[in-house]
Every structure is written in C-alpha cells, then in structure tokens.
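ok new one. same drill as before - structure tokens go in, u give me an amino acid for every spot. 132 of them this time. try not to just spam alanines like last time pls lmao
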C-alpha cells in the first residue's frame, strides 16, 4: 500500500515518473526533473511493483470470473442437449466446458508458481539484509 507521505505516489505526473522508472531512467535524473528528493524516488520503487501486482491480480480475477461464467454456460448447453437427446451438441458443450476448466487450471497453477517465487524473493531479500 503506498504510504501517504510518498511524494511520487501523489504527484500530478505520477504516470510519467512511473514510466521513466520502469524504463530505467536513474532515480537521480527523475528526482531532478520533478524536483523531488532522490530518496523519495528510491522509496517509491516498491510502490510501482505493488501497483503492477495489483493490476495483474485484477486482470486475473476478471479472467477467472469470465471463464467460470463460460463454463457455467457450457454446462447449461450440455443439459439442454441431453434433454433434446442431441449427442453431437452435448459433446461440443462438454468439450467447451473442458477447455474452460483447463484454462482455469492453468491460471491457478500460474498463481501458485508466482506465490512461490514471491515467497522465495522475500526470503532472499531478507537474507541480503541480514548479510549486509
Ligand atoms: Zn510511492
């Protein structure tokens, strides 16, 4: 969560500042251009990461909700096809449902891997702090 005292977070040119930081412009150059301290720019770096992670989570949540809805629709179509004894449509609905479940499973797997990477990165960051 961005701290309320973070100057770049509440800066009118935040998007420009973030873009330059992501593009690799030095903290010193950004500080000079926007007349904020270099330490403020450095502290802000973690907030960009949080914003990116939040955006990824939002996109992922919307995708999951959409896939769940599609899977539900496939289930309804399957039921209708069964009621009509329409095996061809039933198989198509079944395959559509399976594809949705496969996509959901891949998203879940990716989230688990990302969570493990994050845990390892945090452990590594903690390790570097204690070594110094
Ligand atoms: Zn910030």
């Amino acid at each position: 969560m961005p701290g309320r005292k973070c100057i770049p977070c509440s800066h009118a040119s935040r998007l420009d500042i973030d873009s330059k930081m992501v593009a690799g412009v030095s903290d010193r150059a950004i500080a000079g251009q926007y007349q904020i301290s270099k330490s403020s720019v450095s502290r802000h770096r973690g907030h960009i990461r949080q914003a990116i992670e939040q955006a990824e989570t939002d996109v992922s949540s919307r995708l999951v909700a959409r896939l769940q809805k599609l899977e539900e629709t496939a289930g309804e179509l399957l039921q209708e096809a069964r009621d009509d004894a329409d095996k061809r449509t039933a198989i198509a609905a079944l395959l559509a449902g399976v594809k949705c479940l496969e996509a959901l499973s891949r998203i879940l797997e990716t989230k688990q891997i990302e969570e493990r990477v994050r845990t390892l990165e945090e452990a590594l960051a903690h390790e570097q702090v204690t070594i110094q």
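The chain has five helices and no strands. and btw Residues 2, 6, 8-9, 44, 47 surround zinc ion (CB under 6 Å).
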